[in-house]
Amino acid sequence: MKNKLTILSRLLLVIAAIGLVVVLFTPIWRIELSAPQYPEGLSLTIHAKGLQGNVDIINGLNHYIGMKSLHNEDFFEFTALPYCIIFFAVAFLLTAVINRRRWLNILVILFVTFGIIAMIDFWRWEYNYGHNLNPNAAIIVPGMAYQPPLIGFKQLLNFGAYSIPDTGGWIFIGVGVLSVICLALEWRKNRFENKIHLPANPAILLFSFVLIISCNASPQAIVQGKDNCYLCKMTITDPKYGAEILTKKGKVYKFDDMHCLLSFLHTKAIEDTQLKDVYVVDYTGNHSLVKVNESFLLQGDEIRGPMNGNIIAFKDKDSLEKLAVPLKGAAISWEQLNK
């Protein structure tokens, strides 16, 4: 019948229902904190029923800067969220059994709306905890707020905060993608009267989704006078000597000097398999970021970076050659530097 779902759509709905059950038993979101005094890092994982990870240590740190302590009983979400997930798991399964397109349309609208509301609520929670500070805290930095990023990386004093979906979160996103795929399949079936190759459509949509996620990680411009070097913690006052590391998860490490960049890489705090790209600042022009393996590096004793580094970078060879003689420098490759 015209209003019935395709077999593939019903199968995807059953898979989505199973995925939501798995979400109940896996961490949904992860916030990681890194600082020199915690080289192994601290983590806070958000599950459907509560918080796990280094909660006590994070509460101790938050106390000094006036943030509220984190306790599961303070969040009504941990009471409601398991029931919401179970509701949608049953709804996906029932939609597959009832086999009507109208139910699918309603389900997708409800699920996407729930996801948007959940992210807004998460942002509100982070905002309240990062801005509503105790005025009598031991450490007070005027104008400073400690709201973690909703997703991605943010520097909070000497702590780097990194927020990203965890296993359950990615499954939840995947369920949303599957529901949209089902809608696309049904729409195409209705429009072209079953004269299309259905298996190709979910493959294209899934590929597009993965492509968007993989392209989400991008470098960040170094802001003079605001950003700090991740290694030496000095404020970056002269960005033309700067450099930056971008991980595959989208985390950014900024440095005021090639010397700090190389020293950090040699510590192996980040495994080579975690690196996405290394960027250097073009010494000339508008000091844009250039991938280090696409740049031209100049080393010389007359070059003096903020941390006494003697290396600068250029995005083109002509610029390097113009300054090589005045700066008494010689070209050097990234492979030679990072050995």
Structure description:
The structure is a single chain. This protein has 2 domains: 208 residues; 99 residues, no CATH class. 42% of the residues lie in helices and 19% in strands. It is built from 9 helices and 12 strands. The strands form 3 sheets. Strands 3-2-1-5-4 form a 5-stranded antiparallel sheet. Helix 4 packs antiparallel against helix 5. The longest helix is centred in the middle third of the chain and has 31 residues. The protein is globular and about 80 Å long.
Which word captures the global form?
globular
Mean pLDDT: 86
Q: State the end-to-end CA separation.
A: 66 Å
Number of domains: 2
Number of helices: 9
Structural class, judged by helices and strands? Answer: alpha+beta
- Largest sheet: number of strands, sense, barrel closure: 5 strands, antiparallel
Topology as a string of helices (H) and strands (E): HEEEHHHEEHHEEHEEEEHEH
The percentage helix is: 40-55%
Radius of gyration from CA coordinates: 25 Å
User: What is the total tally of β strands?
Assistant: 12
Q: How much of the sequence is in beta strands?
A: 15-25%
Low-confidence stretches: 194-200, 202-207, 209-215
Which sequence of strands runs across the widest sheet? 3-2-1-5-4
